[in-house]
Amino acid sequence: MKAQSQRQLRAGELVRRTVADIIREGDMHDPIIASGAVTITEARISPDLRYATVYVDILGAGDREQAVNVLNKAAGFIQRELGRRTELKFTPRLRFAVDDRQDEVKSVEALLDRPSVKRDLDKHGEA
């Protein structure tokens, strides 16, 4: 995956903060979203700034897939609010996706906690 430009990074951060504010303000009437457990972790913008993938995580034991489905259904409303609140030349079309980086971190930590891996790491550290 190609690294994002400074322009994409700035626009992505603006989109992330604004979408988080829209969700936090409670204009969405779904119990999953209204619970306040939804976290917007990142927004990746296409090079032409017309599309944005917004990554979502749930605090606690919520159903991330269900939250993403709700947000994708409300993407039109969120996109209109985003356009109203920002001064971007184009309001990007929003697509929400599950942020599974925490799962990857947990699996790497579990791997490093294995006794055989710890043993190998200790041997390598002593040499």
Question: Could you name the ranges where pLDDT drops below 50 across 5 or more consecutive residues?
Answer: none
Number of distinct beta strands: 3
State the major sheet.
3 strands, mixed
Query: CATH topology, which one?
Result: GMP Synthetase, Chain A, domain 3
Tell me the name of the CATH class: Alpha Beta
Structural class by helix and strand composition: alpha+beta
- CATH homologous group name: K homology (KH) domain
Instruction: Please state the CA-atom Rg, rounded to the nearest Å.
Output: 19 Å
Keyword list:
GMP Synthetase, Chain A, domain 3; alpha+beta; 127 residues; flat; 6 helices; 3-stranded mixed sheet; single chain
Q: Can you offer a commentary on this structure?
A:
With 127 residues, the protein is of the alpha+beta class. It has one domain (6-99): K homology (KH) domain (GMP Synthetase, Chain A, domain 3), CATH 3.30.300.20. The protein is 54% helix and 17% strand. The protein contains 6 helices and 3 strands, in the order ααββααβαα. It has helices at residues 6-24, 31-34, 64-73, 75-85, 101-112, 115-126; strands at 38-45, 51-58, 93-98. The protein has a 3-stranded mixed sheet. A hairpin with a 5-residue loop joins strand 1 (38-45) and strand 2 (51-58). The mean pLDDT is 84.
